[in-house]
Amino acid sequence: MSQVILTESQGRVGLIRIHRPEAMNALNDAVMDGLSAALDQFEANPDIACVVLTGIEKAFAAGADIAAMRNLDFAQAYSSDFISRNWERLLTFRKPVIAAVSGYALGGGCELAMMCDMVFAAENARFGQPEIKIGTLPGAGGTQRLPRAVGKALAMDLCMTGRFMDAQEALRAGLVSRVLPADKLLEEALAVAQAISNQSLPALMMLKESVNRAYESPLSEGLKFERRMLHASFSLQDQKEGMNAFVEKRTPNFTHK
Ligand code: CAA
Question: Rounded to two decimals, what is the model's pTM?
Fold first, then answer.
């Protein structure tokens, strides 16, 4: 595993840290390849049910590595499938992922956070898509996911001015679900991840797939998919255990089957 990506597990939670402090966690091939490998590892481990993705105190990630990409020409970017080749492993990862954002989440860093299932922000977090200031545009999903997350007007404002949004504005806009004191961010994210990981893993995965369907299809298709997933969940042992436990007024003992 590359040293710019550090991993550990705590119970049923996998923790992934982006660690490239000398470059504000700028995202280069080593980081993105390492992140994909870490996700592969946690996906394959049946004892891991939820992942927390975090960075360093100053930066979740300050975007794609500008020095590494500045000399790319069209043929190189296109032929090497820049971004697509190693940035989107999070999108196929089937277990829940929480982004715990401290400091800057800019450009590709903001886009990476938006690929996660939920975003918790430290009070010092700053979100933005400043690519316009370096003569380009968001290219890892920012022009598509940001309007869905915060609405068209605010997305255009952020992308066209390149300004940064603080944690409270991000909370109001719906980009993040919780704002936490910086020194409590990771502790809280891990505690929430631990609580999530005690739920039925197959039910969590079906839930994640259903919510994500809403992004890919019209409402009627999303609703149909959700309904079929609900029907399918009645074949889980965990569904029987969960509902029996409720009726019998006891704590469920999920076996993740
Ligand atoms: N790429 C490469 N290096 C970066 C970087 C990036 N995105 N962001 C920061 N760094 C480097 C700086 O060059 C600097 O390196 P040196 O010490 O060797 O000079 C180091 O990290 C520390 O950065 P600063 O000295 O600039 O720190 P600061 O506190 O003054 O400012 C910052 C912090 C506001 C994050 C500023 O570094 C900045 O604006 N970074 C660029 C943000 C940006 O434009 N991101 C979008 C990138 S494009 C993209 O992501 C495309 C896409 O959609 C996929």
Answer: 0.95
